[in-house]
Write a structure and sequence with these properties.
Helix content of chain A: over 70%
Distance between the termini of chain A: 62 Å
Oligomer: heterodimer
Order of helices and strands of chain A: HHHHHHHHH
Number of strands of chain A: 0
Strand order of the largest sheet of chain B: 8-9-10-15-16-18-19-20
Radius of gyration of chain B: 33 Å
Structural class of chain B: mainly beta
Largest sheet of chain B: 8 strands, antiparallel, barrel
CATH topology of the domain at 36-63 and 180-252 and 326-443 in chain B: Porin
Helix content of chain B: 10-25%
Chain lengths: 185, 444
């Protein structure tokens, strides 16, 4: 007897609005997706917002998933798109200069500690909104500047310049943090 | 530092980043999914109700434009002085009259009509609106189809160039009840017992309040007007406009007032509104009090929330008990679309009925005690203005005269949506009511 893929069983249950299966799907992917949310968000609360919105979309769009690709990649794409939509909402509501202003955000002083994933995450989260988005899309998701330009409705050159500035800010952060660590040692 | 190094380093660290989401995240997602499902059911029901209403209106319009149910008689040629009509031989016999004489008309029989100086039986061909004296009509026919009924009958007319043969025969096979070509208009009042079905409450969210044992239904009175359209043998459509109230009595809430009946809370100078710091939780939303004369306490649970302790100018221990319980009442205007089917063929009508109604909230009041006909002391948050309900019941229709009918209609009604808007409560309360619609209708 052919063994039924447990993930397919869960998805089938979700399509029948079974709460237990919805929770199983959530439990299976929530840690990974929350990791993505944290990268795109400026704070834990914002990441939670993206997570909730993303999963609601996943359940809503699940009937359109045809098993022609990987479910995790499909869910991941929904989460990245949700983060981009959040960005668009923010851009719409914020004055333009707030989006590109990268001056003046507080630098964290961890003291003598090893450079941990959460520190690097914090550096990324501290990037201004648009830089953070461009950096995530380019450096981690592997999008090209042309694709990023289309997604964020900005010029390709703006995407390049945002990435360069993001790198610069991250470099400063990493270097100053490393100096602190070296000094402490 | 090489830019690619930064990219690589951060990618290595963050690409596969996993983190435990906050525990409350799933609760938010789950709640949103439930709300979405409920909303889609609500939209589906709304669509269904709208479709039924459009269908009903289309049928009524068609019926009115085309002159109604098929009672179009053959061309009526003898319009001179009233003809004598009577059945040939035994009532109901369908013997050999020539086909051209076998004319079917909608006939109204009236055994008590005044014609000239004396009372006698007459028949009225409805389409002609002319009375015809009945001659030799079989007592059997009069007994079976007494005054007040309109029936399709076969009528043969005598005339100068025709032999004097008349016949009234019933063609009731498939024709039930009273006249198919009738509009009836009526008015009614309706004593009603109403309450709610409470479901989906989560103890943790409802703070463990056992609403079921702390609330009970109320009695109220409704009224309205109705129109009935017959569109097929036995079938009619009822619509109209009704006013009714639903609600519940909140038990074990004690109210107190000042010994000298002075206000406990002051009014805002600019708006004249009273800031009352108390809210009462119920299974149908939160009740905001606005009457300045009363302070409330829950003697069995923790439903009274007070945002500011104390009063202006007096002490709690000086207050005196003024009443017990509050009544939470919602008033509605309703437009029903109800299909009725007559189970009996003649005389008293016994209809089964079922349909839906669109309901608009026009009143949202909370009263002290159980008297719901006094000044309100509060109102409920988040009450839904537009609602839908399902209606079912039976209707007993007793002919009082030819055109006037008495209606007695035991009717049940259940809201298809909660009375309170989504998100205001975790549990859902669906109001329902039993009413005895009592009224009269007049046929045209």
């Amino acid at each position: 007897m052919a063994k039924v893929d447990p993930l397919r069983k869960i998805v089938k249950g979700c399509l029948q609005n079974r709460k237990e299966d919805q929770y199983r799907l959530y439990a299976r992917f929530s840690r990974k997706m929350f990791g993505i949310c944290l990268r795109y968000a400026a704070s834990h609360d914002e990441a939670q917002d993206i997570l909730q919105e993303g999963f609601i979309k996943v359940f809503y769009k699940l009937p359109t998933f045809k098993w022609q690709g990987n479910l995790e990649a499909w869910i991941r794409r929904i989460f990245v798109n949700t983060a981009i939509e959040k960005y668009r909402e923010r851009v719409y509501h914020l004055p333009a200069e707030e989006v590109i202003d990268y001056e003046g955000y507080a630098s964290r002083n961890h003291g003598p500690d090893i450079l941990h994933t959460r520190d690097i995450l914090a550096f990324v989260q501290q990037l201004p909104l648009q830089y953070r988005l461009v950096f995530n899309l380019y450096a981690i998701e592997g999008y090209s500047h042309r694709e990023i330009g289309e997604l964020l409705q900005i010029a390709e050159s703006t995407s390049r310049s945002n990435l360069a500035r993001a790198r610069l800010l991250l470099k400063d952060k990493l270097e100053s943090e490393l100096k602190l660590i070296v000094k402490a040692i | 530092m090489d830019p690619n190094y930064i990219d690589r380093r951060i990618k290595d660290e963050l690409e596969g980043l996993e983190a435990n989401p906050p525990v409350e995240a799933w609760a938010g997602i789950s709640e949103a999914l439930v709300l979405r499902r409920k909303r889609s059911v609500f939209y589906m029901l709304s669509g269904l109700a709208a479709s039924i209403a459009i269908l009903a209106l289309s049928m009524i319009s068609y019926w009115m434009l085309t002159g109604g149910y098929e009672v179009t008689a053959p061309a009526f040629t003898d319009t001179g002085t009233p003809e004598i009509i009577r059945p040939a031989g035994t009532a109901g016999s369908l013997t050999s009259l020539p086909a051209e004489d076998d004319m079917r008309y909608l006939v109204s029989l009236d055994t008590e009509a005044e014609t000239g100086s004396r009372s006698e039986s007459v028949a009225r061909i409805v389409a002609q609106n002319v009375d015809y004296r009945l001659a030799g009509i079989s007592p059997d026919i009069l007994n079976r189809y007494p005054g007040g009924e309109q029936q399709i009958m076969s009528v043969a007319f005598g005339g100068p160039d025709k032999p004097y043969t008349e016949r009234i025969s019933d063609y009731f096979a498939g024709v039930r009840g009273s006249a198919p070509n009738t509009i009836r208009l009526g008015a009614h009042f309706a004593p009603q017992s109403s309450y709610r079905i409470y479901s989906g409450g989560i103890d943790a969210v409802s703070q463990g309040i056992p609403y079921e044992s702390l609330e009970e239904g109320i009695l109220s009175l409704g009224a309205g007007v109705s129109a009935y359209f017959k569109f097929a043998p036995g079938w009619s459509l009822q619509t109209g406009l009704n006013y009714f109230r639903t609600g519940q009595f909140i038990k074990d809430i004690v109210s107190y007032n000042h010994p000298a009946s002075l206000p406990l809370y002051s009014q805002e100078r600019t708006t004249g509104r009273v800031f009352h710091p108390q809210t009462i939780l119920t299974s149908q939303g939160s009740v905001r009090m606005f009457d300045p004369y009363h302070y409330y306490a829950d003697v069995r649970s923790s439903r009274v929330i007070t945002s500011k302790e104390g009063f202006e100018g007096t002490e709690i221990r000086t207050l005196k008990r003024s009443g017990e319980g509050v009544s939470q009442v919602f008033s509605y205007l309703e437009m029903p679309v109800v299909f009725r089917y007559n189970l009996l063929g003649k005389g008293i009508g016994l209809h089964v009925k079922g349909g839906v109604s669109g309901i608009y909230m026009v009143g949202n009041d909370v009263y002290l005690g159980s008297n719901i006909y006094q000044s309100p002391v509060g109102e409920t948050y988040g009450v839904r203005r537009i609602n839908f309900s399902a209606i079912g019941g039976i209707s007993i229709e007793v002919p009082l005269t030819n055109r006037l009918h008495l209606h007695l209609e035991p009717t049940a009604q259940l809201f298809l949506n909660p009375a309170i808007r989504e998100g205001m409560m975790m549990g859902n309360a669906y109001p329902f009511g039993y009413s005895l619609i009592t009224g009269v209708s007049y046929g045209f």
